[in-house]
Each structure stands twice: as C-alpha cells, then as structure tokens.
Design goal:
There is one protein chain. This protein is α/β, with parallel strands linked by helices. The chain folds into 2 domains: about 5-40 and about 285-375, Glycerate kinase, domain 1 (Rossmann fold, 3-Layer(aba) Sandwich), CATH 3.40.50.10350; about 50-270, Glycerate kinase, domain 2, CATH 3.90.1510.10. The protein is built from 13 helices and 15 strands. It has helices at about 15-30, 50-55, 90-95, 110-125, 145, 205-210, 215-235, 250-260, 270-275, 280, 305-315, 350-355, 360-375, and strands at about 5, 35-40, 60-65, 75-80, 85-90, 130, 150-155, 175, 185-190, 265, 285-290, 295, 320-325, 325, 340-345. The strands form 4 sheets. The chain has a 6-stranded mixed β-sheet, sandwiched between helices. The longest helix is centred in the middle third of the chain and has 22 residues, at about 215-235.
Length: about 375
C-alpha cells in the first residue's frame, strides 16, 4: 500500500498546521481509500510549535499563568515530551505580538513571561528545552526572560532597571549572583530562522521593530539601546554576543538566550524535523505533501516546505506543496525537492473573504490533485 506523509506548516492567520493536515486528508479520502496517510503537523518555531511537537511525538500540554508583554497576567502554556525531561516552549505564547493587539510598543514590552515558562519547566524537572522564538512583540534583548530566572540588570544607583527595550538605556551592570543554578545544567536549542545581528542596519530594531509598533525615531532609539546592551554584556560577561548570527532574533531574545543560558541557535525546521523523527517517518513513503500560507523566495530562508523538500530529496521521495498564495520568485524552490506547487485560491476574491473559505478550498484542491493522479493510474 502506498504511503503519503502530510507535513504542512500552518497557513498563518487562517488554519493551524493540524487543521491543514485534516483538510488535506479529507481531500485525499474523497478519491482514494487505498493509501496509508500519516499526518505530521509542522511548525518552525513560531505559533503552533508546541502543538506540532505534541501531535507528532505525544506528551502533554502544561497550562501556566505568566505575564504578557505588558506585564498583565494571562493563561499561557508549553509542552513536555514523553521523556518527561524535554520542554517545548514557544515564546509567542507569553511574549507574542498578538497578545498586545492595538497596544504595540517595543519600548515597553518584555520577555518576562517567557522566562516564567522556562522556570516552570525547570520546576517540573525538565533538563532540555526547545524554544521557538518567532512572533515576538518585544525588543528588550531578552532581559525580561533572564530576570525571571534570577539575573539582575542594574542602573548606576544599583537598582533594577525596567525590563523593557526602553529600560536598556539605563543599564550599567549585569548581576549573575542570583541566577538559578539549574540553568547551568540545561541543554537549550533555539528554533531561529533569521540571521540578523543584535543591532545595526540589519539588527533587531531596524528590521523588526516597525512591525511591533515603532516609528523611525523609536527604531533609532531602540537600536542605540541594544548597542549599549551589547557593550555591557561584553564588559560583564566577556561575550561578543552582537556578532553572533541570530542574536537579533525576537527583539534580541536570541542574544539573551545565548549570553545568559548558553543556548544554541539552529534553523527551526531542522530542530522540529529531528525531534519528530521525520527521516524515519518518510523512509518508506511514496509521496510527501507540504504547504504554507504563501510560498516565495523568502521561503528559501528556512521555511517549512523547503526543509521538508530537502529532507525528502535525500530519500528521493517527491514532494508537492499546496499553498495559499504563490510568489513570482519561486524557481529556486524546485531545486529543493519540491516537484510541484498548487494554490488553493479557486476564485478571485480579497484575502478576508478567501480566508473564510480556505479549509474547503484546500480540501477541494487536494481532491482535484488526487483525481488527476488517479487518472494517471498512480
């Protein structure tokens, strides 16, 4: 019996990766009952990472109250895998952009809640962490996260600074004397799909702060604060963190995780695929189906379909991508194991209308693909 592995990313703002899997399965089953279907919902470090891991490997979802980016108490979560020692954390669940909605202000937001999630995982005996850092609302360099774990950030009066992007301006000293000692035994992998430095023209503030609510003056201000922060880290910790690719990810949370927790930054898709045993899952597959909301030249920078395509290519297994939208610059995608790309847009309507019918359109598009495949006696 032929085996088809269904391994899509979410369609951002429209369908979770699990919902995409279900719609693809439904489309196939309308035509073919003779295929073995294996669903592996995938995320690359942003929203949906926890659910992706738990669906693929098992484990449990842990609910916990933490502070949101503006220090308000919210219900958040992370996952613990079946080994009981590995926690999966997505910073977006505590410090993400959707949590601030119309109150975006990267001068005032903090990663403190992400540190609280890490602390809770430590209290439950976890010794390995996988942290997805996509979708942040913050530009605090990770000081909020670190402060929740006992690290103090002090001004010239030996007082704690505000744990925000604005607070970095007054930073004079980093005090590690109260750092949680369990952090030194942690193994931390960070799912990071950008290589931006901490500051400068391609740094956290200039590239990402505008989408978090910063105007031009605020961008320049935040960038200066991050440069100052990098100098204090160099002085007090001896780490040249700003030179490390990805240190500017998530408003500098990448830098904080490296400097204070000794974390390793890796492409998110590689971490996820290794953790779920993807190479083993597809070893006897006939076809792999992947997808995302939009595929274009930016997808080559570590997005899910490219990671899936490259892995399947090593096994000589064809991949088709079913996506919401297709960009103009996709030719290089075909060199990454993807054999064909199909858009689910069946009628010419604005996105707000298209998203409301996306699940049905996805199902019908997959049904059409497999009707054609069946006609070819596949």
């Amino acid at each position: 019996m032929k085996k088809v592995v269904i391994a899509p990313d979410s369609f951002k703002g429209t369908m979770s990766s699990s919902q995409v899997c279900d719609s693809i399965e439904a489309g196939i089953r309308k035509v073919r009952q003779d295929l073995t279907l294996v669903k592996v919902p995938i995320a690359d470090g942003g929203e949906g990472t926890v659910d992706s891991f738990l669906t693929a490997t098992g484990g449990k979802r842990i609910n916990v109250k933490v502070k949101d980016p503006l220090f308000r108490e919210i219900n958040s979560f992370y996952g613990i895998l079946p080994d009981q020692e590995t926690a999966i954390i997505e910073m977006a669940a505590s410090s993400g952009l959707p949590l601030v909605e119309n109150e975006k202000n990267p001068c005032l937001t903090s990663t403190y809640g992400t540190g609280q999630l890490i602390l809770n995982a430590l209290d439950r005996g976890c010794r390995r962490l996988v942290i997805g850092i996509g979708g942040s609302a913050t530009n605090d360099g990770g000081i909020g996260m670190a402060a929740a774990l006992g690290i103090r950030f002090l001004n010239d009066q030996n007082e704690s600074i505000p744990l925000t992007g604005q607070g970095l301006e007054g930073l004079v000293k980093i005090d590690l004397s109260h750092k949680d000692p369990r952090l030194d035994q942690l193994e931390i992998s960070v799912a990071c799909d950008v290589d931006n430095p901490l500051y400068g023209p391609n740094g956290a503030a200039y590239i990402f702060a505008p989408q978090k609510g910063a105007d031009e003056a605020m961008v320049k201000y935040l960038d200066r604060n991050l440069a100052h922060y990098a100098e204090i880290i160099r002085k007090d910790l001896g780490v040249m963190v700003h030179e490390i690719p990805g240190s500017g990810a998530a408003g500098g949370l990448g830098a904080g995780l490296i400097a204070f927790l000794g974390a390793q930054l890796r492409p998110g898709i590689d971490i996820v695929l290794d953790c779920v045993g993807f190479d083993q899952i597809i070893s006897d597959a006939t076809l792999v189906i992947t997808g995302e909301g939009k595929i274009d030249g930016q997808s080559l920078r570590g997005k899910v379909p490219i990671g899936i395509g490259n892995r399947a290519k090593e096994h000589q297994i064809p991949v088709i991508a079913v996506v919401g939208d297709i960009g103009d610059d996709i030719n290089p995608v075909y060199e990454c194991g993807i054999k064909a790309i199909f858009s689910i847009n069946r009628v010419a309507v604005p996105f707000e209308l298209a998203r409301s019918r996306s699940r049905n359109d996805l199902e019908k598009t997959v049904e059409t693909i497999f009707r054609f495949a069946t006609a070819l006696q596949w």
